[in-house]
Amino acid sequence: MDSAKLTPASSGFVLAAAITVLVNTALACAKDADAPLKAFMKSIAGHDWTTQGLFDLVLFAGLGLIFTYTRIGEKIEPNRLIAALVGAVVIAGLGLALWFGFT
Amino acid sequence: MHIGISDVLLLAHATFGVAGCLAALWVFVETLSARAANIGRIRTGALVTAACMAAACICGGYWYLHFYPAEKALILNGPWPFAHNLFMETKEHLFFATGILAFLLPIATREKLDTNSAARKLVLSVAALVAITGLAMEGAGAVIDHGVKIALLQNVSKETR
What is the complex's ipTM, to 2 decimals? Predict the structure, then answer.
């Protein structure tokens, strides 16, 4: 029989991935516009890019675990979750290209 | 002939990136006809995708931090400054999205793909996104490389005039 539900882990980590991709995009634009933020990020791991990568990884894993145990992702219909993830990646790609292309 | 650590890291970065895209494509194709017999291959493909993208990130990240500044200076003084301002800036930040998606793939493939249509749709979407964004990274890398090349050619043509 065909089931159409995702497990708490899958749905939780999909939601975490969508949020992390959007936060990553916002952070990339924010540090480009705000020199003190970039300097602060550089002071943490030696380079702002390294800090951003580590931050993304911790955010994805942390949110994924929280959403898995609270089962928040399960409450969202799978097609909406998938659309949110695809939309987040499209926004990230276009947003970053527009930001760095026109600033 | 001299092959330095910079060359090895840069080529390894591109190679692992392409391998990750191919592995994601492998997962996509296997998932189209997911059944009990190929679940193991799908999960192996997902792990290979994540491992290749992690290796691409480590090689590319080390190269970017230690060897890119000299190339960046060349690009910004050359005819194609947008190779850095647009392509490298977008690539270095969008790559984190590709990495997150690659790490999501092994989690998504733990689902019962042969009996769960929503899970199949999820794996197909994530694998496609990894392959598409990964190939976009490869294209951006080629533009950045060309930005360095034409900057160097401009310098050489000035010297030979």
Answer: 0.95
